[in-house]
Amino acid sequence: MENNERYEKGIHAMEELFSEEVRTGMRHIQKISPDFWDMIVSSGFGDLYARNTLTMEQREYITLTTLITQGAFDQLGVHVQAALNIGMSQEEIIEIIIHCSGYVGFPKAIQAMGIAGEIFKNHDDASRKD
Amino acid sequence: MENNERYEKGIHAMEELFSEEVRTGMRHIQKISPDFWDMIVSSGFGDLYARNTLTMEQREYITLTTLITQGAFDQLGVHVQAALNIGMSQEEIIEIIIHCSGYVGFPKAIQAMGIAGEIFKNHDDASRKD
Amino acid sequence: MENNERYEKGIHAMEELFSEEVRTGMRHIQKISPDFWDMIVSSGFGDLYARNTLTMEQREYITLTTLITQGAFDQLGVHVQAALNIGMSQEEIIEIIIHCSGYVGFPKAIQAMGIAGEIFKNHDDASRKD
Amino acid sequence: MENNERYEKGIHAMEELFSEEVRTGMRHIQKISPDFWDMIVSSGFGDLYARNTLTMEQREYITLTTLITQGAFDQLGVHVQAALNIGMSQEEIIEIIIHCSGYVGFPKAIQAMGIAGEIFKNHDDASRKD
Amino acid sequence: MENNERYEKGIHAMEELFSEEVRTGMRHIQKISPDFWDMIVSSGFGDLYARNTLTMEQREYITLTTLITQGAFDQLGVHVQAALNIGMSQEEIIEIIIHCSGYVGFPKAIQAMGIAGEIFKNHDDASRKD
Amino acid sequence: MENNERYEKGIHAMEELFSEEVRTGMRHIQKISPDFWDMIVSSGFGDLYARNTLTMEQREYITLTTLITQGAFDQLGVHVQAALNIGMSQEEIIEIIIHCSGYVGFPKAIQAMGIAGEIFKNHDDASRKD
């Protein structure tokens, strides 16, 4: 697999996960370091999300859990959105956070639930407008 | 829901996940602190694994991911076994670790893969004997 | 102990620790997930803070330390307030952070001290108004 | 305060906390790096444990909690011993771990309880011989 | 070495690393706890940055890496500035973050790159004004 | 750059860092998951260590620091060896750990120093035999 192919697969995975607005926001990294941007797309998305064996939904189970566990709350919002975009329900996302609470403790789970609640609200507002 | 019911549900979930040998090993905690044992069973298993919305398999996706992310390698082995016990394949578990590598870095992912490899080997040996 | 009793004990512990304003703020979690709210109250407060053996003050020593160590700075503020509410002094809280610095490193200890300083200032301002 | 005084205070605090056997074991660090040893004694013990405001027991509440939270299980054993040495009870140490479980999750709390159990057993055996 | 000498060395190291504006900002800690401020200066800077064996630049390699790894993003900005102040290039700092990405995962590396990008921009703007 | 080229660069970097014995040991991962092995070599070593801008020694500064900070002590030993292999001195490695102590706290720094001491001893013994 050529590097170009890895990059294309990464871009494709990102289009499936993120809205155009989110993807445009992510591009600010490309201006700081084009090399790092290539790695994010090719390694972070092309090498991981474009693999078989697991569905996109199963991959978001893993991604949401690892972000909550490591306290990476800055990235949690866009992946809650991504989970909704690929068809996961709010109940499922809430349940992931509840299951996490026993493994990471309440402080991180509460912070995650607050962030998810914000995304849900914006999502519901946007749906209502449609 | 009475406390007794939460405890019973927890024991039931543990029976689904762990072999008798593993469950007997876990009981050493009960000798140190009966109260803490009750909490592990009632809160850690009864309140979490016995809930609806997610399947046992989906819960193990979350559990394996959070253990890898927080470097709780002491507990990872029994949950790799649990994942196999409830019908997850070795390929799926490997894929969870691979997906994690982009989110937690290679050192933790490599350590997790080594532990999974050990469990797979014992599992294959045990199957061969049957 | 019935679930209802665990919940009541949790609410009671929260009333001892947090001002009405803080408790009202926490209720936004209840709107996102009533089940998770029940767990926070029953398990997080009822099962832990309402136990014997340790005083409320000793429990806040543990809570403040674990929040600083895991970098859960979003929750640190309300527990610094809680510590003051149950009668701990500013000197004691400062000393906990200083002791932590040798165990978690300066970056987390400095961030904790800044947060504590903010709470102290608001607290002193409120006292002055009385 | 001269450096020498900080070092002396640190040695004094270590004598209060650790058995001679434990202190001799710690000295292997001195052979690898005498400078680092000086820092451990002067900064880690002299500057922290020898301060006023908190008792030795209160300091062990903080130390045990931060070690459990950061998963520093290699050092947890000697501090469980230290806690017993300065007069804390097994019930108190168990209760610290139980309180931590809600803040750090079950995996780390279970590992901590297992380590504490080992130390308690050795301690009880030693007491019985006396 | 007397305490006073350790403090002086720490102040000297801080002057080499941080702008006057940054150092003034740090002084808010001194108002909350003069003792903790002394420790930060004497132990955090005097005992560490003023040692031989490593250059200031090598020490910033370590500092930037540990801040990224532990997710101490609040402090990362001032140390990116410090790295530029002692003559490190933007390319070097970007490369440190890229190298980290394989060890800590993409979420923390992406957040670090965003923070570095902000500092670079302010730095370039300030240079242009000169 | 084709994937094959990334893999070759990774193998080359690994040969520069690790002894044949260490590299053979690492190959057990390849038996568990050939895909993950390819990623470790191509992404973990080819994409990172084979880049320009930083020297091998500067990359080991970063690697040692991130391993100490995240408590990845299982991997620390081989990277202390790698640091010695590429010409870093024991004094330099000790100094990296000392600098880390102020940022990650004493427990992790002490554990790192103990591991480094073991590697130094084996290294000195091996040198003496030559």
UniProtKB/TrEMBL annotation, chains A, B, C, D, E, F:
Domain annotation Carboxymuconolactone decarboxylase-like: ranges: 34-116
The superkingdom of the source organism is Bacteria
Stored InterPro entries: 4CMD/NDH-1_regulator, AhpD-like, CMD-like
Q: What is this protein called?
A: Carboxymuconolactone decarboxylase family protein
Native organism is Sporosarcina gallistercoris
